[in-house]
Amino acid sequence: MTLDPGGILAWLLVGLIAGWLAGLVMRGGGFGIVGDIIVGIVGAVIGGFLFGLIFPGTVVGFWGSIVVAFLGAVILIAIVRALAPRRAAA
User: Fold this and answer.
1) Nearest 5°: CA angle at 13, between 83 and 18?
2) Helix 62-83 and helix 32-54: axis angle, to 10°?
């Protein structure tokens, strides 16, 4: 699979949107602009890898990239939560 939304600004936008959506779904809020972009871009890598295994040779556009990055970001957040020690409630 090829994530092909365009240049670096498009990748940042995809990361921001995907990270923000994943933050809403997994936590009830985002991680801040920089955090959302990082989660979204890392999620795009994870989602692109997994989606490429399932659907090899598939090309998605801008909106498809957001969906794949969102799914990857959700997986990333779930893995981090599973591995991170729990914080005590205040």
Assistant:
1) 35
2) 100
Residue 44 contacts residue 68 (beta carbons within 8 Å): yes
Q: Describe the crossing of helices 62-83 and 8-27 by its angle, rounded to 10 degrees.
A: 50
* 14 half-sphere exposure, CB direction, 13 A CA radius: 30
Buried b or exposed e, range 2-29, using 16+ CB within 10 angstroms: ebebeeeeebebbbbbbbbbbbeebeee
Cα separations (Å) of 37 from 14, 44, 53, 70? 8, 10, 24, 11
Domain locations in the chain?
Answer: 2-80
Locate 68 and state its tokens: 């794949």
Chain segment 67-84, per-residue pLDDT in tens: 888 898 888 888 887 887
For residue 52, give both structure tokens: 């490429």
- pLDDT at site 33: 79
